[in-house]
Structures are given as C-alpha cells and as structure tokens.
Amino acid sequence: MSRVLALDDHPLILKAVSDELLTQPDIELVGKAGRGDELLNLVRDTSPDVVILDLSMPGEGFEPISAVRSLLKEYPKVRVLIFTGSDEPFQIRQLVEAGVMGYVLKSDDFSLVLAEAIRMIHNGKRFFSAAVVNILLADQNISPALTDQELQVLQLVGHGLQNNRIGGILGLSETRIRNILTEIYHKLDIREDGDINMRVAVVNKARDLGLLLRYKNDPK
Length: 220
Fold this sequence. Notes:
The chain has 220 residues and is α/β, with parallel strands linked by helices. It has helices spanning 11-22, 39-46, 64-74, 89-98, 110-122, 130-139, 148-158, 163-170, 174-187, 195-209, and strands at residues 2-7, 27-33, 50-53, 79-84, 102-105, 127-128.
C-alpha cells in the first residue's frame, strides 16, 4: 500500500487526483492541501510514502526546489512526484538534482499515468511522462525520430517492465506493444537477436543516445 499526500492550489485538480486515487486499491490518499507552506507539517502528521507536489503553490516563503531539498533532508525516505503545468527544462533538471523521483505534466492524461508513477517511485524507480522526456530531449538537441508513444514504451522497457504490464499501463494490447517495439528496434537499428537480447540492446542503445533519463543517484 502506498500512502500518498497531495498538494495543489487548485481545488478541482485536488478533487480529480483524489477521485483517481480512490479507484486504486493499493493507494491510500492520507492528506491533501492547497498551500506549499503546509508541506513539512503535513508530512510529519501523515507519514506518506509519496508526496504529489505542484510547483505553483501559495504559501509564505514557498519555493519548490528549496522545499524539495528541505523535505528530503528531514524525511529522506519520502518520494516526491511533481505534478504541474510547468515544462521548463532547466527547472525539471534542477528538481531532479534536488531529488524528485517523478515528473508528470497536467497536460498529460494523468488518469493513465499518475497511479503507475506513484507505484514506480514508491518502489525506488524514476517515472517521467513521455511529454517530459520529449521536452528534455529537445533541450539536448536530440532528435530520435520516435513518436511519443514509442518513447513512452521505451521508458517502460528501460524500467524492466514486460509487454503485458506495459500494455496494461498504456491501455494497449500486447500485440500492439510488440509492434511498437519492432518499430523502435528498426529506428534504433537493433538487429534480430532474440527478444531478451534485443530488449537489453535497445535499452543500452537508448541510454547511450540519451533517450533514457539517467541522473546521479539513480536506483540501480
């Protein structure tokens, strides 16, 4: 069970997040708030595993990067998932350096990714939505000629997920996932060498090309 605390200054967003998480039997929403300066007190009072944090929050002295650093210094086992409308690459990288484990944009269809993001970062893995990955790739002038869906599948393969799990997350059949992987193999010039070897090869090549986000202190 993942205990989740959600902070967002927009009541409708908080309600949408609450409604979504209530449908997940392995996720418990233990608290929510609309002000950034309530963060540390709420973490102390609710003992969450994961904090969902918006970046544009009212509150005296609230600054998201400093807030994340202060939170993780005092509560190092808490995982932070940014859920925001901000898509500035430099700020995303600063937040990752500060210790956030996931980043999802409000422009994403978060009903498809939010719960899985919580599960993955609770288990020590990073989660970045496909839109965030594309923003960072564009900022690095990397043009892999992969579609958003292909990038999303590639990220999940990089996390070690199998086709049935990836299909469940993305709402696609295993056959569709296999077809997407075939296209990724073609685009990244991965030669036929058995499913396991090709998955390893595509992950290694994607890392070499910078298509998988790798930061210091990433869980192995």
